[in-house]
Amino acid sequence: MRKQIVAGNWKMNKNVQESTQLASEIVAEVKDLNLDNTRVIVTPTFVNISEVVKVAKGSAVEVAAQNMHQAKSGAFTGEISAEMLTSLGLKTVILGHSERREYFGETDAILAEKVDAALANGLEVIFCFGEVLEDRKAGNHFSVVESQIKNALFHLPADAWKNIVLAYEPVWAIGTGETASPEQAQEMHAFIRKIVTDKYNTEVAGDVSILYGGSVNPGNAKEIFSKEDVDGGLIGGAALKAESFIALVNSF
Ligand code: PGA
Fold this sequence. Notes:
By secondary structure, this protein is of the alpha/beta class. The chain has one domain (4-249): Aldolase class I (TIM Barrel), CATH 3.20.20.70. The protein is built from eleven helices and eight strands. The chain has an eight-stranded parallel beta sheet with strand order 3-2-1-8-7-6-5-4. Helix 10 (221-225) links the parallel strand 7 (210-213) and strand 8 (232-235). Helix 1 (16-30) packs parallel to helix 11 (242-249) and helix 5 packs across helix 7. The longest helix has 18 residues, at 182-199. It is globular. It starts with a strand and ends with a helix. Bound molecules: 2-phosphoglycolic acid (PGA). 2-phosphoglycolic acid binds at residues 9, 169, 174-175, 213-216, 234-238.
């Protein structure tokens, strides 16, 4: 059965003290929750990951990375490899966030290489994609999402999908306070599950968790997460405070 996931994307926020503080608060809150089929993930910035890993050790809170480079090692100043992440005990990396695509030139082709490098190192990938406002207005959102998924993931064999989590994040909803309606989210998530079924099979499609991201908050999460094909959320702003983040974990 696919898992429900609440993943906090801390982006470029919080110094080391703030990061460990937030992580401690989340660890303390999560201790009393019955998390049966729910995963709770936090993604601090690279420089603070080790300290947050120490805080989360032994708890149900998982720590993941926001990005990584596709090369094994070498002359890539400022970059981080998959092996560096696994050497810290990390099991998951976010790839393809729209901010990486927009501000750092990450293309589908680069992302396909990153996905391969992550999987080759035993990492699970939370793969992000989503249309910009113009695409939605023009009615192109389904074809845009389909090509993003196809170009970066459809070369994978079926068994690689056990280490893939999908995150649909319409760019117009990220950090804008404007959320896709629960119906819009469900419609897209059902479409995504269908294209994965068509490419692979119902088992792969049924087992993959599909998260929604874009201005999810404690006020709208319950309704969005209640939709059949929405398996949780990738959360930016509301993940930066323990109280709102835990409220999201409790929204299932
Ligand atoms: P937001 O960010 O919740 O602040 O809209 C979501 C994301 O970028 O993953």
